[in-house]
Design brief:
The complex is a heterodimer of chains A (about 260) and B (about 325). Chain A has a domain of about 40 residues. Chain A starts with 13 loop residues before the first helix and ends in an 18-residue tail after the last strand. In chain A, helix 5 packs parallel to helix 7 and helix 8 runs antiparallel to helix 9. Chain A is about 30% helix and about 20% strand. The radius of gyration of chain A is 19 Å and the shape is globular. Chain A is α/β, with parallel strands linked by helices and about 260 residues long. By secondary structure, chain B is an alpha/beta fold. Chain B has 2 domains: about 240 residues, Alpha-Beta Barrel (TIM Barrel), CATH 3.20.20.70; about 70 residues, no CATH class. In chain B, helix 1 packs parallel to helix 2, helix 1 runs parallel beside helix 10 and helix 3 crosses helix 4. The radius of gyration of chain B is 19 Å and the shape is globular. Classes of the chains: A alpha/beta (about 260), B alpha/beta (about 325). Chains A and B meet through helix 2, helix 3, helix 4, helix 5 and strand 5 of A and helix 4, helix 5, strand 8, helix 7 and strand 11 of B.
């Protein structure tokens, strides 16, 4: 989804992964590339439509190749900011839309309401570093003084992205090749009730290094009422030293802000 | 080639037209355009007069309605499109799918250009916008090299417009939330990036420190000029390196690439800077008009005229040269 040059490392294993997940009763969606410029990227995006599983579009290039009315989902990098756009995508075949992470709760509620009327489910970025920007330039390659076309996979040692600090040592962002992520991990633990009330039907959890299965389980416990929001937050902090969380976007504040900043 | 010039105020519009602009682009004074700064942009009466002035001088006016309409408040954007049609704008510049659909359905005769904020970076996507919404021109995102632009033009009937001068976005436009992460205000939602309301300059430890939303973006010796703290052009640390990790404080100047862009099939050259003064706009427009006229008459490009107008005195040709990536 971020960089087509990474694909050869795992491409062959995608069919097996799909099989394992489907056998376990999971719905699988394949995500399209976020910024498509090269010929092979266009070809790859066109071929995605023939994979036989749900496609999540992250750029309209993918839409150009999907048959009319074929169901698809929409990723967080497609700009769905209002009801007209949501309705248009719904009429085109969208069944689930993960909203842009920067949207505040009142917009989310308005969109979720329009989604309900159009048979579309709304998803919100629930956990993990937030995708903030995508570029034609690779910042990892730039950092290593290499051209992008000969990057020698400068990003491979930073699976969570490489921390970007201010000159005062304040953690701020993370570079992930052509993508820029937030330093903080978004966490909707304390917003779940408000999001559910707004009509949001799912949370997206983005994997970071660590016991991701456990994190998924904790969010399941939260949604099923076996764990409270603050308990989940405490559990996340207990499992990861120095974890910085954020939920400012949903609250209409700075994206980096965290509503329980005093939580240990 | 057509020169498309910025007009943040009626005075800039007149200055650009007098300086030889073929086309000016401007926006209404509200959140519908991506330069929603205090004191900038046009009310409806000013827009009417501006269009009359431009048309009287044989120039066209494009109205940028290129933010993403706010949920629950789309009426503001719909009125902007309808008013643009009523006022006689030559085209609207749109980015949002829903708004493109609205314009195509309700004002089919109003020419639609696809804003750079839609980041349409390949021929498949551009043609899809053309087939679906009748888009006639696309402003290309600043992520493409000149050969890639040529390849796009070979595969589409849609006219292409490219930025040649001014502030440079390093990220794909319309797909960046860095500003709202630090300040709560973003280009997509509010039409602002790294807004002045969240900038703090402070003298500390013999340095002038420029912060945005509390994050240190630049520090300079007290007697040095401190650049404006635009987030992606800040000085940061990653691993064992410190510096301008995303982009140096440079601005775009592709003046010398005009012949190549022409050869690549580009229809229009766009100058950034609706926030700039009328005299700046006039000077830049004059230079670019001279360059395009030189091209038409087979003369060499005039060299280096614009360097001193560039931000921080340094300029780049950006993604047009592949090594930028």
């Amino acid at each position: 989804m971020v960089c087509s040059k990474r694909l050869p490392f795992f491409q062959d294993r995608i069919p097996d992964a799909i099989g394992v997940l489907q056998a376990a009763g999971k719905t699988v969606a394949l995500s399209s590339l976020a910024l498509v410029t090269l010929k092979r990227e266009r070809k790859m995006t066109a071929e995605l439509a023939e994979m036989g599983v749900e496609i999540e579009i992250n750029d309209l290039t993918a839409l150009a190749h999907l048959p009319p009315k074929a169901p698809f989902s929409v990723g967080p990098l497609v700009n769905v900011y209002n009801e007209s756009t949501l309705r248009w995508l719904g009429a085109r075949g969208a069944v689930r839309i993960c909203l842009p992470p920067e949207l505040p709760l009142d917009s989310i509620a308005t969109l979720a309401s329009a989604a309900r009327d159009n048979g579309v489910e709304v998803e919100v970025w629930g956990y993990g570093r937030v995708p903030l920007a995508i570029s034609g330039r690779c910042y990892h390659a730039r950092l290593h003084a290499r051209p992008k076309d000969n990057c020698q996979f400068a990003c491979e040692d930073d699976p969570d992205g490489l921390s970007v600090l201010t000159r005062e040592g304040q953690p701020f962002l993370a570079m992930n090749g052509v993508q820029t992520l937030s330093d903080s991990y978004a966490c909707m633990a304390l917003q779940v009730d408000a999001l559910a009330q707004a009509g949001v039907s799912s949370l997206r959890l983005s994997p970071q290094t660590g016991d991701f299965t456990k994190i998924c389980g904790s969010f399941r416990d939260l949604l099923d009422g076996r764990l409270s929001g603050p308990e989940l937050v405490n559990r996340l902090h207990a499992d990861t030293d120095g974890l910085r969380l954020s939920d400012g976007f949903v609250r209409g504040a700075r994206g980096a802000d965290w509503s329980a900043a005093a939580t240990p | 080639m057509e020169i498309v010039c910025p007009a943040g105020t009626p005075a800039s519009l007149r200055a650009a037209v007098r300086a030889g602009a073929h086309t000016v682009y401007c926006g209404f004074a509200d959140e519908t355009n991506a330069r929603n700064f205090p004191g900038l942009n046009f009310d409806r009466a000013e827009m009417r007069e501006g269009i009359a002035f431009a048309h009287g001088h044989g120039a066209k006016v494009l109205i940028a309605i290129n933010t993403f309409p706010r949920a629950g408040a789309e009426g503001i954007w719909h009125s902007a499109v309808s008013d643009a049609a009523d006022l006689g704008a030559d085209a609207v510049i749109l980015a949002d799918l829903g708004l493109l659909d609205y314009a195509a359905q309700n004002h089919p005769a109003l020419r639609r250009h696809l804003s750079v904020q839609a980041a349409a970076a390949n021929a498949d996507m551009i043609n899809y916008y053309a087939e679906t919404f009748g888009v006639r021109r696309v402003v290309l995102p600043r992520v493409l090299s000149v050969p890639e632009i040529a390849a796009i033009n070979a595969e589409t009937e849609v006219e292409t417009e490219v930025f040649v001068f001014g502030g440079l976005c390093v990220m794909a436009e319309g797909r960046c939330s860095l500003s709202s992460y630090a300040t709560g205000k973003s280009p997509n939602m509010n039409g602002v990036c790294s807004p002045p309301s969240h900038v703090d300059y402070r003298k500390e430890d013999g340095e002038l420190k420029a912060r945005l939303g509390g994050y240190l973006i630049h520090s300079a010796a007290e007697d040095e000029p401190a650049p404006y703290p635009t987030l992606c052009k800040g000085c940061f640390t990653a691993g064992d390196q410190s510096g301008y990790l995303f982009e140096d404080p440079v601005s775009l100047n592709a003046e010398q690439l005009i012949p190549q862009l022409h050869k690549a099939g580009v229809t229009a050259l766009k100058i950034e800077g609706r926030q700039r003064s009328a005299s700046y706009v006039a000077q830049v427009v004059k230079n670019f008009r001279a360059a395009v006229d030189a091209l038409t008459s087979g003369q060499p490009m005039p060299a280096g005229m614009l360097a001193r107008l560039s931000e921080g005195q340094a300029s780049t040709t950006g993604a047009y040269k592949k090594t930028w990536r």
